[in-house]
Amino acid sequence: MIDRIHDSEERAQMQKLITIITLSAALSLTSGCSYFGVYKRDLPQGNLVDQEMISQLQPGMTRNQVKSIMGTPLLEAPFDASQWDYVFYLDEAYGDVEKRRLTLTFQGDRLANIDAQGDMDSDIELPTDQEAGPAPEGADPQGAMPSNPDEPEPAPGPGTAPSGGETSSEDEPIGGSSGGDDSVESESSSGF
């Protein structure tokens, strides 16, 4: 009789274990079906180069003229500055990766060769952040301490360094008053 009770307890534990394993497997399989994904955003990097900019370039232009059209190059050889590279890379959130590369070669100070790789004709719309950028003129910075115009600024005491545009008085040394109490000075020079 004890064996029958012991067997029924083992069966109950086994059934609980099988139920837990089955539910865990079913839950993990169904959670894979409801995958929503992670928020991704377009990631543009480098210099945006398009056909309109390239069409303005002409062999024989100076480096300054090229820089005014194209901007500062992303890559410039450190030892031989005769080649400028403008590279643009756009990793779209849920799409393709677009790569553009423009290599400009100079002879002396003049543009000699233009080599474009990638689809320069396609338009790329970059997202604009409405909140980004400088604050409007006259706007107070966030978290700034309000100033009280009725409260006068404290006058600098003797021995303080001048601040922002004040001139120092040559009559009074920065170290303190010039006469009388030399006890502080003698203690510091005696090595205590």
Automatic annotation (TrEMBL):
Annotated membrane topology: Lipid-anchor
Every Outer membrane protein assembly factor BamE domain range: 46-113
GO biological process: Gram-negative-bacterium-type cell outer membrane assembly; protein insertion into membrane
Domain of life: Bacteria
Keyword Lipoprotein applies: yes
UniProt keyword list: Cell outer membrane, Lipoprotein, Membrane, Palmitate, Signal
GO cellular component terms, A-Z: Bam protein complex
Region Disordered: start-end pairs: 115-192
Acidic residues: compositionally biased ranges: 118-128
Role summary: Part of the outer membrane protein assembly complex, which is involved in assembly and insertion of beta-barrel proteins into the outer membrane.
Complexes and interactors: Part of the Bam complex.
Alphabetical list of PANTHER family matching this protein: OUTER MEMBRANE PROTEIN ASSEMBLY FACTOR BAME
Protein name: Outer membrane protein assembly factor BamE
Gene (name only): bamE
